[in-house]
Amino acid sequence: MREERELTLRAVLTGVLLGAALAPCNVYSGLKIGWSFNMSIIALLLALAFWRLLERFAGVPPWTLKESNIGQTAASSAASIISGGLVAPIPAYALLSGEQLAMLPMMAWVFAVSFLGVWVAWYLRPALIVDAPLRFPAGIATLETMRDVFGHGREALLRIVALCGAGFGSALVKLLSSFVWPIARWAPTQALERLTFGLEPSLLLVGFGAIIGIRAGVSLALGALIAWGAIAPGLLAAGLVRASATASGSLFAPLVEWLLWPGVSLMAGATLAGFARRWARALAGGARGATFNRAALRERGPAFGFAAAAALTVALQMLLFDISLWMALLAIPLALLLASIAARVVGETGIPPIGAIGKLSQLGFGIAAPGQTVTNLMTANVAGGAAGQCADLLNDFKVGHGIGAVPARQTFAQCCGVAAGSVVGVLVYLALIPDPAAMLFTEEWPAPAVATWKAVAEALTHGLGSVPASARLAMLVGAAAGAVLGVLDAAPRPPRWLPSGVALGLAFVIPASISLMMFTGAALAWALLAWNARFTNRFALAVAAGLIAGESIVGVAASLWGMAGR
Length: 566
Description:
Number of strands: 0
Number of helices: 23
């Protein structure tokens, strides 16, 4: 019996091209709201649609299940390249050092830290996927979707139509708003407009809201009311923030310089406390730890790949950021440890704790290299980048294990995706943000993840002297509240309507209008689920993904067009 086609040239190229097309979506949304979207399912559906059309009208061989897995593996790795630092530590480095990395060095850096994560995942696969199988919810969702669309041709067609229709509509709205009839944010009063309240004309935010769910959506709305509706007017009344509005009349820029401190503290407290409790619960449950497989360690090919990734990462730390040899070397085992811990958390909960991993690494190097801001920031980038690609590939390994795919072939596809994503992601980032100091922390580019990494690096390097005196008590309150919420959220049965500490903190560092639009999307999805659960479960994700992809692709193009015309 002939073996089903798997690692074919068309499968790899399809994944790489889709990943290159989808990576800008995550760069765009990462700079807008600090979150990204797992592109496995959207890549799966788009590849299937393309090859089914060619099969029908051009007579090409059928697109197989295993080819689909190779394609989505390459596409998801390219699209998730922002975990290599593009929307967090790299812009934070530019702001703190006053230097923007050049294009080629930035590509090499993003590739190196991501490439390291690929090999960490390879060595963790036997322990986490085969010997002690964890659920890996994102991988299971992709696997079930794959089986569903390959088993029911009409179902695949309907989801693809929903995805493409939503994408076309979202792209059209953004296109008209950018080039024909600009749609401004609407607010009932000028006072609310100055405090960033209103309705943002963005279907991308509605799509993200539908994906994050009602709990996170309500938490964002609550955080916006607390930060921009209660604290911000108090700061202005007390004279703690000067009301130097921008040309548009908005007070976002002066207020966010104060609000980011309690917001970052709230997010950090929630992520670290929840991360610690989930990890402790996983270990206490008797499951095997995230350990490297001894047999895998003896394989020469992966060992060479890991050694090359580690050597490249150490060399680039020294050459690009002037980090000492010992600190650069120390970043590698710390990245392995933290990526391994993150892999278990992802397997248990489906939540990639990239922010928590970065903060843990920053804390570690705050002790090992006190007073060295760049060392603190970019060594943590190693851990965060490795953890991001490790988590992505382990989800793909879960899919592959379910259909009998060959892990080495998936690893090759992942490496191809990382290479493509490093090139495209950096080009898009540099095109969108040529001047980080002037463009970031504005209403157009709030960049909350950048604010978080920068604030932690400053606090650990310069102490509380870098924090406005009036914000220090708010930091302590935020950290304590976040820790309580994080611990409760990580309980085996968390309270049903417990607010999300991460979402609450995020609302402090993005305009209130963004939080409210994401809440709107979450509320719409929740209402549809209550009305018709089967229909919503079939199509909500496809529609939401289309809304995100359509607007972000046109948004990137519109931003580039606008800069070209200046």
